[in-house]
Amino acid sequence: MAHFKTLSELHQFNGYPPPEHPMISLLRCTQRCSFGTSEFTGDFYMIGLKKMKAGFIRYGKTKYDGDSGSMYFIKPRQVAEMRNLELEDDGFAIYIHEDYLNGHPLHAEIKKYPYFEYEANEALHLSPKEEQIIWGLYRTIESEYNNYPDEYSKDIILGHVGAILRYSQRFYKRQFIHRTELSGRIISRFTNTLTHYFESGQLAQKGLPTVKFMAAELNLSASYLSDLLKQETGKTALEHIHIFLISEAKHLLNGPAATVAEIAYSLGFDNPPYFSRLFRKEVGMSPNEYKKYNLN
């Protein structure tokens, strides 16, 4: 697998002219795009807008075969592959070496956007109006990039990159809201998967189910699953797992005599004190207090 430490290496590998700047590169795609024919990683972020007609994009573990206008976000050292792309309209890709962000607020800000963790099938789908907003920001970046650079260029470019990221966060929120039917199905499948995990004995065998495990069972990335559930229910995937386990704990505490430690171990907790702290956080009293309260 190819790994590109510099944008010059990426350009050379794909037969592009050298980038105008060693730390940031803008690529416009008209109908067809070539990004090589194999998996690659790099020390850079990629922000792309491509309305695909053919070919595929893959990053993480998932392949994306095209749909309406979509945006994609790749973080440094994320495995990616883009083959034989044919576009309905023009597209673009912005490559930003991670070192270009040093000393700028975007260095910390960019790490807060969860969609860099999303898989390809969770790409951002844009409405025509939203596309216009993103294209407007891109053209401003492109104009600044192609002009003679001065002391203001970096701040202006990264300021508009930051705006693209903030708009993308807003548009993802809109996407979650507009996909309420999907959200409802995911919540049901999430609950059913947890129930099966518990009833099939996997809890005792494998321990507490992780968000990553639950997401894989639902064919989603962990970040997308949590964001989807948070938007729909106000609680993350981890919080839903905890709620389920505390509900089971309440049932066991009301049942035949068993110590809190035994119940904790039966629910997959390796550390009974951690179980007790989680129980108190969710219920407002310790497991022993809950048990005594319900016996009175």
From TrEMBL:
Annotated HTH araC/xylS-type domain ranges read 192-293
Q: Which UniProt keywords apply?
A: DNA-binding, Transcription, Transcription regulation
Keyword hit for Transcription: yes
Superkingdom, natural source: Bacteria
Task: Report what the protein is called.
Answer: AraC family transcriptional regulator
SUPFAM superfamilies, sorted: Homeodomain-like (SSF46689)
Which molecular function terms from Gene Ontology are attached? Answer: DNA-binding transcription factor activity; sequence-specific DNA binding
Taxonomy-wise, where does this protein's organism fall, top ranks first? Bacteria, Pseudomonadati, Bacteroidota, Cytophagia, Cytophagales
